[in-house]
Amino acid sequence: MSRISIMALRVILSVVLAGTLFVQVGMVPMIAVNEVARPGAPEVPAVALLAYLVLAGIVIEICAVCVWKLATRAARSTVFDPASFKYVSPIIVSVAAGSLATFALAALLAPGEDIAPGMVLLIGGFGILLAGISVIVYVLRQLLIQATRTEAQAAALRTELGGVI
Fold this sequence. Notes:
This protein is mostly helical. It contains 4 helices and no strands. The protein is 85% helix and 0% strand. Helix 2 runs antiparallel to helix 3 and helix 3 runs antiparallel to helix 4. This is DUF2975 domain-containing protein.
């Protein structure tokens, strides 16, 4: 990857991390305080939505940090190394967990009359999208495994060729 593309990626990841932290630290507590201040106890959908926002923020932060680490490895030309797997696996797990949380949110919102059925369907569709992203990243991880093996085989062949010459 070129230095410009890595720098652009890091700028984008920095903005994403800052925005996510702002939502988690600033917006969620303000919304929670407003919900508690309303007459009556906070409703289950409101609490579930706030918990979902915090969990979604954690998923985004995990993915952003792992992508940052992978970009650093790409800049150093060390991405085709087994050590890269420790940055890909958390992305798969966190996005899959986000998918399950999205399905749980849809299930919590479905029984009431406050949320339109179409909205619950959209949330369920987003859960399917997240599950698909998790599967895509898993497939990319498998490709990284193959590329790592190929890189190791090429290095071994270079060593043998160097010994012959």
